[in-house]
Amino acid sequence: MQEEPVGVLIVDKSGAIKPLNIQEYKEDELYKKCGFKKPDYFSKQHEWAVKVDKKKYMVSVFAKTEGKANTENKYDFPPPIDTTLFFGSCAIVCKLSPTEYTALSVSLWDKIYEKLFGGFEDLAATCVEDDLEEDELSGVPANKKTKDGYLKDGFVVDSDSGDDEKEYDSSESSDEVGGTGSDEEEDDDEGLIVEDIGSELSSEEYDTDE
After folding, report:
1. Which of 40, 55, 168, 207 is 20 to 30 A from 144 (CA-CA)?
2. Which residues on neighbouring strands pair with residue 8, listed in sequence order?
3. pLDDT band, residue 4 (cuts 50/70/90)
4. How many angstroms separate the CA atoms of 44 and 50, rounded?
């Protein structure tokens, strides 16, 4: 028997939490504090070992897993009982050791609850930080950014880059046409060379006859 009152938390089916001091705490009679007439299906569902503010706690949840329709408990308990369906009211009890109980206040449970969920991100504070964050591209010259305000690099280009590619293709086509023309000019040069060689041979024959 516990000499001092034990402070527990009663979670009713709506999810509301109410502190309760039990003068003579008996675990096997805890179901009565939750409003049940019989202990059927009422038992310890899980016990967490958690450290908060450099102090270790052992927190247990007692609840009923069978019940009538529309009496389901709506409170979201931490894992691994976050998907377990309970009925009616539940009780949360805290210990410092296997035999030493301690009063569990709502504020202490809030800290333990957050710890068991891995902590919560303050979305409001995050939004303020985002608003106060300096624009990294504010000091970048306009010619270094795309028309949409992004920094130009190997991955981000202006949306009209496709036109540049088309212009490049057309220039390549004109080069090819020009190349064909140069080949024709080379053929003409070869023809001239042949004619020159022929004229030289003619002059040699002429000299021989002489």
Report:
1. 168
2. 20
3. confident
4. 17
Question: pLDDT tens across 157-198, in order?
Answer: 555 555 544 444 544 444 544 455 545 444 555 444 444 444
**DSSP secondary structure string, 93-123?**
EEESSSS-EE---HHHHHHHHHHHTT----H
Asked whether 93 and 104 are in contact (CB, 8 A), the reply is yes
| Cα–Cα dist 140/152, whole Å | 10
Q: List, in order, residues 6 or more apart from 78 with CB less than 8 Å away.
A: 48, 113, 116, 117
**Residue 162, both tokens:** 């496709």
Short-list 94, 120, 96, 117, CA closest to 105: 94
For residue 44, which of 2, 103, 12, 84 has the smallest C-alpha distance?
84
Tokens standing for residue 68: 């009538």
One-letter amino acid for residue 172 of the chain: E
